[in-house]
Amino acid sequence: MDTKLKSSKNNYFLSVIVYILVIMTSIGLVASYPRISKLANEKEKPSYFEDYNFQMDLYKGSFVLYKDLLEKEQNKDIPADEIFFKEYKGYSENDMTDYSFIKRNINYEIGNWNKVLKRELKNLDYYIIDKKTNTFSSNTEKKLSDLILNEDNKEVLNDLDNYYGYYMVIDYNEYGEISINKIKGANENVISTFLDFQWKNLINGDSDFVLSNPKNITIVYGVPNDLKYVDRISNYINGADSYAYENIILFYVLIAYILIMFISLVIPFRKSKDIIGVKNFIKIPFELNIIIMPTITSLLALSPNIVYETVNNEWVKESLVRVGIPFEFTNSILMIGNIAYWFVLLITAFTAVLLIKYIFNKGLKNYIKENTIIYKIFRLIKRIWTKIYDEVTNIDLNDKSNKIIIKILAVNFIALAFMSIIWFLGVGAAIIYTIFLYFVLRKYFNDIRNKYQILLEATNKIAEGNLDVTIEEELGVFEPLKDELQKIQKGFKNAVNEEVKSQRMKTELISNVSHDLKTPLTSIITYIDLLKDENISEENRKLYLDTLDRKSQRLKNLIEDLFEVSKATSKNIQLNIVNVDIVSLMKQTQFELSDKIEESSLKFKWNFPGNKVIVPLDSQKTFRVFENLLINIVKYSMQNSRVFIDIIDGNEEVYVTLRNMSANEIDFTAEEIVERFARGDKSRNTEGSGLGLAIAKSFVELQGGTLNIEIDGDLFKVILKFKK
Predict the structure, then answer these.
(1) Is the CB of residue 300 less than 8 Å from the CB of residue 345?
(2) Would you give the DSSP letter of residue 85?
(3) All structural domains of the chain
């Protein structure tokens, strides 16, 4: 026990150390966030405005804005195909070529581009002007037109430069040819990319379709330094910022992983496998582990975003506030969440290394056998196949029912084979075979029905109360049911006997309760009548009052015991389980009953261990058990005999034995003496409730122990057993 307890404490201590190290490493990673942020901000970031997809969005937007401007000039809706579709190469105008699909495709694409421009690029400012009509359109109060009209005004240009992080001026001439006049916030090389865009890249890649570019317009695009909306632009810029964190974070994470893996490698396997939580995790089937561990590890890809959002975005805190968390606690919650995130990742890495060590120590072959679902399924299939094979190869040909089944199957196989050979004539053979099969099955069915009727009649007789029914006939397939029916008969007889015994015990119980309650109550009534005599002497009055007090106390104790055993039987008792030294508790009971023990002529032999014996028990209830048992010994033991009280400390259990010689002949069983109101003297001359042993047994069993009684002649032995 001491070795196991020491080992358990060592495992617990090691688990605490490991988890503390992982938590401290997680805290260290969170504490490095400011340093990571500083290094990331110093790192050069890629420009979103040079991104191919962004330039493509601007190119597409030009067509959308051109269409809107034409509709504004003509004050009507114009289908996109009427503006941009020109011809299909290789066909004359008289050809009946169906262009409806292409036109629908053009209209659909322009519609999608319009949604992107208006909904997903809300931070994009634009200004468009028709160079012939001077009709213009803009979505901003800022005068982007100054980049065209006042390009020599340095003050105006400086104002725009301060406001916009990016702008670009695109010009379409009367032939639809593109040129870029000004650009800020992006490399000049993007101009060549922009100029390479063509319709065929955007619709279906068919170069035979000739489509028109916008004509005679100038478009100015601008993106402010301070973004107002959450859209593609803001998401990409934030993503670029978080991307700058990636390499830096991976460096810190690599150091943390190396530390955790070093710890997992240093700890001996025989100790590491008993770390709390690890043992259960490595026992998970391999197939689930290869899903769980990579899934958790993949969360590492979120680390740049997590660090960036934690350090730079106040909206996270605002979101926490909106759900009811006080603002002063938001930092703490963010830190705890980040620590938990890193803890999960690091403990997964730690466990993964231990899993590899476990596989090497266990052996790959043994690990596959014990920890893979596939192997277990294979074994199940093999077991099922083996069972089927055994069933087939071990058919008892001497069994009548098996013979009948085999004969029917053989005849059926031959008949079906014959009918399949003779083709058309097989129809007549099938009719004959069906008629023959009918008569065979009818005969077999009638036999089963008759045997079933015999079984049913016997069952009905048993249900009516006749438990001596016998079935002499052989029941064929129902033969096993005949055996089961005989078992039921035996069970019914035992149940009836138990019920008779129960009724007898109830009668005795009522009689005993009545007697034990009536005796003190009668005495109380008698002495009250005596006290009513006015001529009674003071000495007698005092004597009568003492007797009343004693009888009342006995009645009270009896009623309390009744309530106690009732609660114990219904398990309606609140236990206060604590670590109890059972040796000290027995000594305390000995001291409390020392007067009664000394008054008796009994010689008590106490045999206790020298050390403490700690057991999780309810001290009050256990004291009551010891008290009841010792009082019984004092009451019913032979005068001048020896009494032996032993406490034995086992590895997992504690035994308490009490042995005494009975003063009267023991004419009862061990089962009877623990019944309620049962006494060693059936004359019931001794005082007591007769509930002592019943209460003791109930209290012991409620605490997970056992109370057994052994009787050998007049030797009475009680054995208590408690789990440590």
Answers:
(1) yes
(2) E
(3) 2-31+236-362 (no CATH), 48-229 (no CATH), 573-723 (3.30.565.10)
Q: Name the packing angle between helices 364-371 and 286-298 (round to 10°).
A: 90
Sequence-distant (6+) residues with CB within 8 A of 88 are 97, 99, 102, 208, 209, 210
* φ, ψ at 577 (rounded to 5°): -80, 120
Cβ count within 10 A of residue 485: 18
Cα–Cα distances in angstroms (integers) from residue 303 to residues 29, 307, 339, in the given order = 11, 6, 12
Question: Closest Cα to residue 22, out of 273, 347, 349, 354?
Answer: 347
The residues near 60 (Cβ < 8 Å, ≥ 6 apart) are: 113, 116, 117, 202
Tens of pLDDT along 319-346?
777 777 787 777 888 888 889 989 988 8
Q: Report the candidate in 387, 633, 640, 307 with the shortest Cα–Cα distance to residue 316.
A: 307
Name 604's bridge partners.
643
Query: What is the 3 state secondary structure string of 238-272?
Result: HHHHHHHHHHHHHHHHHHHHHHHHHHHHHCCHHHH
* Single-letter amino acid code for the residue at 494: N
478 DSSP assignment = G
pLDDT one-digit tens code per residue, 17-57: 888 888 999 998 888 888 888 887 776 666 778 888 888 88
Report residue 564 CA to chain centroid gap: 40
Structure tokens at 265: 């490698």
Cα gap 681→635, rounded to integer Å? 10
∠ CA 197-203-209 to the nearest 5 degrees? 90
